[in-house]
Design goal:
By secondary structure, the protein is of the alpha+beta class. It has two domains: 3-121, wza like domain (wza like fold, 2-Layer Sandwich); 126-204, Outer membrane lipoprotein wza fold like (Roll). It is 18% helix and 23% strand. It contains four helices and ten strands, in the order αββββαβββαββαβ. A five-stranded mixed sheet has the order 7-6-10-8-9, with helices on one face. Strands 2-1-5 form a three-stranded antiparallel sheet, covered by helices on one side. It has a two-stranded antiparallel ribbon with strand order 3-4. Strand 1 (57-62) and strand 2 (70-73) form a beta hairpin. The relative contact order is 0.15.
Length: 205
């Protein structure tokens, strides 16, 4: 989607009162569109129940109050620092919930505050793919995603990929899950097309 069209879409959604999770700063770009295929920027639409995590970048706008507009990174303690309200707990909450909380806290300082909270970059929910794929790198995990879906998002396998030897390294315990990609594609081993969790790495030898 061309950038002028993206900006027009975002403006239109704002006019309809759509909450901040649907659009973020200008220059929205899906991971597959980046030069190396990996990006931490969000696509144009987030799942309705997306919860903010540590490391995510938030863009907070208080309409008519430019001095209160901030781009903030969620700290390891799950908070962000903002003018007037000092620190705000945001981790584990949806953008709408943070928006509501911030509105309630600002009402003592700003007359009828209008607040928009958008997730500008995702760092808390990432999956990784490396090896013989077209665009190895890190990809936001916004919704359920399987091994096959991540490979597709990474542009597919190269001609040198060993399809029978693909595996997933699980985050945390570093457990290894073998995936015979060739059989999965043929529908012979659907159970091996595992659903990925944040921090998982798919390795394609």
């Amino acid at each position: 989607m061309a950038r002028p069209l993206q900006r027009s879409l975002c403006s239109f959604l704002m006019l309809l009162g759509t909450t901040g999770q649907l659009c973020y700063a200008q220059g929205i770009q899906a991971a597959a569109d980046s030069p190396n295929g990996s990006s931490v920027q969000t696509p144009a639409v987030l799942p309705p129940a997306y919860k903010i995590g540590v490391g995510d970048v938030l863009h907070i706008v208080v309409w008519g109050e430019p001095q209160l507009t901030e781009t903030a990174v969620v700290r390891p303690d799950g908070k962000v620092s903002l003018p007037l309200v000092s620190e705000l707990e945001v981790a584990g909450q949806t953008p709408e919930a943070v928006q509501q909380t911030l509105t309630e806290q600002l009402i003592k300082f700003v007359r009828k505050p209008r607040v928009t909270v958008t997730v500008q970059e995702i760092h808390s929910r990432m999956v990784y793919i490396t090896g013989e794929v077209q665009r190895p790198g890190a990809y936001p995990l916004l919704d359920a995603m399987s091994v096959v879906q991540l490979v597709a998002r990474a542009g597919g396998l190269t001609d040198f990929a060993k399809q029978k030897q693909v595996y997933v390294l699980r985050a945390g315990d570093s457990a290894r899950v073998n995936v015979n990609y060739e059989k999965v594609l043929k529908g012979q081993a659907p159970q091996q097309n595992v659903e990925l969790a944040p921090g998982d790495t798919v390795v394609v030898p």
